[in-house]
Amino acid sequence: MTKKKTEESIIRHYLENKTSAKGLPAQADHLLSLYYYSKNKYEQSLEELLKAIQKEDQRWDLYQHLVHLGKKSENLKAVYDKLNSSLDKYADNHNLHSCLGMAYLLDEKISEAIDELQKAISLNPDLPLSHFLLGISYLECICASNLEKEKSSLLISLVDQEFSKAKECDKSIQGKRFEEGVGLLSQGKYQQALKRFKQILEEILEVDLVFGAFENLALCHFIAPEMVDYEMVQQAIQELDQRMEVRENPHAHNRLGVAYLLFLKLLFREAESCFEEARQISPKFQKALRNLKFLKEEEKEFSNLFEFLRF
């Protein structure tokens, strides 16, 4: 059995036991989806996420991940099928209409995107991402055709309106990149502005999946420490830190904090290895014995803390 296969088997077995005990039927599939995402295995990630939604079709947070994975795996058809199936049951759910609008936008079906996003906002006006997506959709219309001046001016005002509402609903949606896009809009550089806002959208869609993938890295360390090393954790910290600029929110800070704790836990492991090496060279070396005893006591408490943080 290969290392990757062993890793996947361990994670699946552990998650299914852990989450079933907590009465979370979809959680194992969701975390496995994030695990495959972290390995750039997007088709398998999508497959696991669809299983999760099948088990808990009112986990609205999963549908945005679904759209992003559908795009990544070049399988938006599966996304449309699932969203339309869920809309048959929950026709007035703003989350589903917003996600369907997002899928249409990513699929360059702009008129359909506008229809669905307008439905989502009519059901719930306080949807920052929906306003942002609708602003991008209107901007797509401006860039895609030579409109009369009057119609073009109307669309520009709608773009400004939707972006302003997005900022009002969620202060974290603004940032350096967003303001750069607004600046390009004001200069009439619509193609450049569109490119900038679509980059922001891609980053927003990716950020939660990156955070989720980190959680699985932490999980791997917790259940199979030999699978995680310094470089993996350092890379995770760098990626999390970069995402802080995309969307400033408490979840981002919390996960980054857990990443640093994981790094500290790895330092515990390395320190223990050094003390053990000292003991092998000189079994009665008292400093190493005292340090090792102290470290083991602290590590036990730290492991309890880490389990609490993870679950």
Describe the protein in words.
The protein is mostly helical and 311 residues long. Among the domains are: 1-56, Serine Threonine Protein Phosphatase 5, Tetratricopeptide repeat; 208-311, no CATH class. Helices cover 81% and strands 0% of the residues. It contains 14 helices and no strands. The chain has helices at residues 3-21, 27-38, 42-55, 61-72, 76-89, 94-106, 110-123, 128-144, 149-169, 176-186, 190-223, 230-243, 250-281, 286-310. Helix 3 (42-55) runs antiparallel to helix 4, helix 4 runs antiparallel to helix 5 (76-89) and helix 5 runs antiparallel to helix 6 (94-106). The two termini are 29 Å apart.
Quick description:
This protein is an all-alpha fold and 311 residues long. Helices cover 81% and strands 0% of the residues.
Name the poorly predicted regions: none
Describe the oligomeric state of these chains in a short phrase: single chain
Spatial separation of the terminal alpha carbons: 29 Å
Approximate helicity band: over 70%
Q: Tally the beta strands.
A: 0
Order of helices and strands: HHHHHHHHHHHHHH
Q: Structural class, from helix and strand content? A: mainly alpha
Please tell me what the overall shape is: elongated
In DSSP terms, counting alpha (H) and pi (I) runs of 4 or more, how many helices?
Answer: 14
- Give me the Rg, rounded: 24 Å
Provide the β-strand percentage band: under 5%
Q: Main beta sheet: strand number and arrangement?
A: none
Overall mean confidence score, pLDDT: 81
